[in-house]
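Anyone opening a protein record will find just a pair of labelled lines. A complete record is shown below as an example.
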Amino acid sequence: MSTLPDDTLRKILVQIQQTAVQSQRALNISRQQSASKDRERRILQLTIDEIQGIEGDVNLYKGVGKMFMMVPRKTMEQEFKTQEKELTDDINSLNKKAKYLEKQFNDAQSQLRDIFHHSPKQ
C-alpha cells in the first residue's frame, strides 16, 4: 500500500467507506421493511384464524373506500391466504437482501481493517 500515492489511497479509502455506509443504511431499511411485513403477516394470520373460528354461514364484509361490501366467506379466505403468501415471499426476499447487504458491509469493514493494519506506522 505504501507504493500508492496519497491521493489514490485516499480515494480508495473514501470509496470503501462509502460502500460500508451505503450497505449499512440499506441493511437497516431492509430490516425495518421485513419487520413491518412480518407484523402485517401476523395480523393477517390472526384475521384468518378468527374467520375460520366462526361457525355457520355468516355475512362477511370487506372495506372498500368509505363503504363495505358483502363478500362470500370462501372468497375472503382465499384473498387473505393469497395476501399471506405474498407477504411471506416478500419477507423471504428481504431476508436474502439483508444477508447480501450484511456480507457487503462486513467485506468493506474487513478491507478497511486490512488497509489500516498493513499501512506503515507513522
Remarks:
- The chain has a mean pLDDT of 89.
- Residues 24 and 105 are 6 Å apart (CA to CA).
